[in-house]
Automatic annotation (TrEMBL):
EC main group: transferase
From-to range in the entire protein, with total length: 110 to 371 of 371
Annotated HAMP domain residues: 1-33
Protein's name in the database: histidine kinase
Compartments where located: Cell membrane; Membrane raft
GO cellular component assignments: membrane raft; plasma membrane
Domain spans labelled Histidine kinase: 41-261
Catalyzed reaction equations: ATP + protein L-histidine = ADP + protein N-phospho-L-histidine
Organism in which the protein naturally occurs: Halalkalibacter hemicellulosilyticusJCM 9152
Organism phylogeny: Bacteria, Bacillati, Bacillota, Bacilli, Bacillales
């Protein structure tokens, strides 16, 4: 009886060891696939603006433009693509630093209301400019300040990213940035009445290079890295980020950060 039990037990152990090795092999394979995919994406993302830069500078060099307006258009494309490349390189640099755990994050007392006011100041011209019909609202509770421990510049970067996306994917209606807080945490919400996203897309939008429609982001000028960086930055602040969205109605991102007492 004792022997049988021992044999059965070791059989179980062998079985679970085999399963663990299988799982490990599977996840290593998945990591490798992700790496390969990541580098393929990077090459593609770098090559596309390069092609534009080379192409249009050649056209200009050879004087192949008919009107001054056409020439300015080409110069604008060159400028736009060069800016895109700069953003891409900045984003990749941030991701590389985070992957290596060498990301320098400040840990200061940060007043979230102040950060939001700054973000609104910096992004308002985008929401109100262009030929958009957008109302840009900011609702903060003045009664209390919401203090978190974190890096003010990085928190600003996160919110600018969410607001710029909201503006990018909203043609008319409103963009609202507001906070809801309790004793333990503060929720920062960025809501838009833009094009929205399908529910099945939502689990993937924080992945690197993921775009809801492949063509969408290129037309809108994004890198597809923004939200993956946002999520990592928030997690480095011991926070979480959630999203709710309905096609044709809009999107709301919620960042939850642990509050500290002032
Ligand atoms: P991108 O730089 O392409 O905007 P992000 O990582 O910031 O990349 O976002 C990933 C994708 O999520 C975008 O390509 C876009 O399709 C979708 N998305 C992000 N924010 C919004 C929003 N506010 N409304 C609708 N779609 C959005």
């Amino acid at each position: 009886n004792y022997n049988t039990r021992t044999i059965q037990k070791s059989g179980d152990e062998l079985g679970s060891l085999a399963r663990a090795i299988n799982d490990l092999a599977f996840s290593l394979q998945r990591v490798n696939e992700q790496r390969r995919e990541f580098f393929a994406n990077i090459s593609h993302e770098l090559r596309t603006p390069m092609t534009y830069l080379k192409g249009y500078s050649k056209v200009l060099r050879e004087g192949r433009w008919k009107t001054e307006e056409e020439r300015n258009q080409y110069l604008e494309i060159i400028d736009h693509e060069a800016t895109r490349l700069t953003y891409l390189v900045d984003d990749l640099f941030d991701l590389a630093q985070m992957d290596e755990g060498r990301f320098n994050l400040e840990h200061k007392k940060v007043n979230i209301n102040e950060i939001i006011k700054l973000v609104v100041k910096k992004t308002a011209y985008k929401a109100l400019d262009q030929n958009l019909n957008i109302e840009y609202l900011c609702e903060l509770s003045d009664k209390e300040d919401s203090i978190v421990l974190g890096d003010p510049l990085r928190l600003e970067q996160v919110l600018i990213n969410l607001v710029e996306n909201a503006i990018k994917y909203t043609k008319e209606g409103s963009i609202t940035i507001y906070t809801v807080s309790n004793d333990e945490n503060i929720k920062i919400k960025v809501r838009d009445t833009g094009i929205g996203m399908e529910e099945e897309e939502l689990p993937y939008i924080f992945e690197r290079f993921y775009r809801v429609e492949k063509s969408r982001s290129r037309a809108f000028g994004g890198t597809g890295l923004g939200l993956s960086i946002v999520k990592q930055l928030i997690e480095l602040h011991n926070g979480t980020i959630e999203v709710e969205s309905t096609v044709g109605e809009g999107t709301e991102f919620t960042i939850i950060l642990p509050k500290i007492l002032d």
